[in-house]
Automatic annotation (TrEMBL):
Family: Belongs to the short-chain dehydrogenases/reductases (SDR) family.
Signal peptide boundaries: none
Domain of life: Bacteria
InterPro entries: NAD(P)-bd_dom_sf, NADPH_pterin_aldehyde_rdct, Sc_DH/Rdtase_CS, SDR_fam
Gene3D superfamilies per the UniProt record, alphabetical: NAD(P)-binding Rossmann-like Domain (3.40.50.720)
Name the UniProt record assigns to this protein: SDR family NAD(P)-dependent oxidoreductase
SUPFAM superfamilies the record matches: NAD(P)-binding Rossmann-fold domains (SSF51735)
Length: 236
């Protein structure tokens, strides 16, 4: 499969802001039905109004496996089997040495960034269209560690390993379905980046400019890459 047909649905977690919201708007503009989730009801209401009819934007917590399972079932019933699933929901805390990182912050980072990828993989991989691609959003800090961001680094290293493992499982048990980890590439000026790089985040392109390139890359280039690959979105 060289690309995703404009009639097929795209699933994205974490669509209330940042990369997820920008991707949802871009995929919808390209004619794809979008199934998106997040926890911020007001932000989702705004996104739903922007996208219009034909999409499924729901309040779902990616750390709740049962809720994600229900969302996946509803997605397939209403929009059909997705050809692209983007596990994008993420969390990062301000820079601090690990001994100043609270247990609550560490656990939230792991729950959202790792458990959130697991719940989407568990719910959507067996429901994906043949030729579909599961994308786990990773980070350059999931390949090269970053001091003072140990929790985030640990979570993204876990995402990389988890994705390679589920790629092997998909290759054996779900022929035609692939899983890859994708680093957004070079930094994007989002609220998350502002949290960890408060003095630098404005130096990077915004989510909308990034999504213009990223959507095309995810639709047309990623399906050609090897199963289990660690990839990077080209810069805008």
């Amino acid at each position: 499969m060289d690309s995703v047909s404009t009639s097929t649905s795209v699933v994205i977690s974490g669509v209330s802001r940042g990369l997820g919201a920008a991707l949802a708007r871009r995929f919808a503009a390209l004619g794809h039905p979008v199934a998106g989730c997040a926890r911020d009801r007001e932000a989702l209401d705004r996104l739903r109004a922007d996208l219009g009819e034909g999409h499924l934007i729901t309040v779902t917590d990616v750390t709740d496996a049962d809720a994600v399972e229900r969302w996946a079932g509803e997605t397939v019933r209403r929009l059909g089997a997705p050809a692209l699933v983007v596990a994008n929901a993420g969390y990062i805390s301000p820079q601090a040495p690990v001994w100043e990182t609270s247990p609550a912050d560490f656990r939230t980072t792991v729950d959202v960034n790792v458990v959130g990828v697991y719940t989407l993989a568990r719910a959507f991989l067996p429901r994906m269209a043949t030729g579909g691609t599961f994308v786990a959003v990773s980070s350059g800090w999931g390949r090269n560690p970053r001091g003072r961001l140990a929790a985030y680094t640990a979570s993204k290293f876990a995402v990389e390993g988890f994705t390679r493992a589920i790629a092997q499982e998909a290759e054996e048990l779900l022929p035609g379905v692939t899983a890859v980890a994708v680093d957004p590439g070079g930094g994007v000026d989002t609220a998350m980046l502002a949290t960890c790089l408060p003095d630098e985040h404005t130096e990077y392109p915004g989510p909308e400019a990034w999504a213009q390139v990223a959507a095309d890359y995810l639709l047309h280039q990623v399906p050609k890459e090897p199963n289990g690959a660690s990839l990077t979105v080209p810069g805008p």
